[in-house]
TrEMBL record:
One of its GO terms (molecular function) is zinc ion binding. InterPro entries: Carbonic_anhydrase (IPR001765), Carbonic_anhydrase_sf (IPR036874). Pfam families: Pro_CA (PF00484). This is Carbonic anhydrase. Its cofactor is Zn(2+). Zn(2+) binds at residues 38, 40, 96, 99. The keyword Zinc applies. It comes from Gulbenkiania indica. Binds 1 zinc ion per subunit. Gene3D superfamilies: Carbonic anhydrase. Belongs to the beta-class carbonic anhydrase family. CDD domains: beta_CA_cladeD. Keywords: Metal-binding, Zinc. The keyword Metal-binding applies.
Length: 193
């Protein structure tokens, strides 16, 4: 049985048994929060539980490393939509220890791509178009510095309102313990309770 078949079989039972009813909510985050987190499989259930979030509490955006790599990319757009259209009033960036993006080797990824059928000609074409593949695929060396950088990219975005607190945290992928790296309330004259 394929993974897709397993998913669809489970889904049919899920819908037939009306298991979805426990997750009913609307599109607005009840805690007025947007969370940018790493896509690591260990965090699928751990992160919301460690943060005290249930379905409907937050907008959850996930990618490799919890990074904003480009100020005009889809992650930043999603955060802006969350703030302006979906009533998010605060943002949390949550990376984690033991992240696969730490010290990732871009050349290894490119070698793997070629081994799976991507041609050298394609890589040459992309580089000729001005895409620095190694820089684009590079992760980070220090998770705390990465969180600080991503928080700063979000805070300093010309379309992000200055009154939106942007917090940065690192979660332990086993225990769920959160460490605050950037307190988005720091330096503000009024703070949310």
């Amino acid at each position: 049985m394929t993974i897709l078949s397993q998913v669809l079989e489970h889904n049919q039972s899920f819908v037939t048994n009306r298991e979805y009813e426990q997750f009913k909510t609307d599109k607005f985050p009840h805690k007025s929060l947007a969370v940018l987190a790493c896509m690591d499989a260990r965090l699928v259930e751990l992160l919301p539980k460690a943060m005290g979030l249930k379905n409907g509490d937050a907008k959850l955006i996930k990618n490799a490393g919890a990074l904003v790599t480009h100020p005009w990319g889809s992650v930043m757009r999603s955060l802006l939509v969350a703030v302006y259209e979906l009533r998010a009033e605060e943002i949390c960036v949550v990376a984690h220890h033991d992240c696969g993006m730490r010290a990732i080797d871009p050349q290894h990824i490119l070698d793997s791509a070629c081994a799976r059928g991507v041609s050298e000609e394609t890589l040459t074409t992309l580089r000729g178009a001005g895409i620095d593949l190694e820089k684009w695929l590079k992760g980070f060396d220090n998770v705390e510095d990465s969180v600080r950088h991503t928080v700063e990219v979000i805070r300093s975005h010309p379309l992000m309102p200055h009154d939106v607190p942007v917090h940065g945290m690192v979660i332990h992928p086993t225990t769920g313990a959160l460490s605050v790296i950037v307190d988005g309330y720091a330096g503000r004259t009024s703070q949310a309770a």
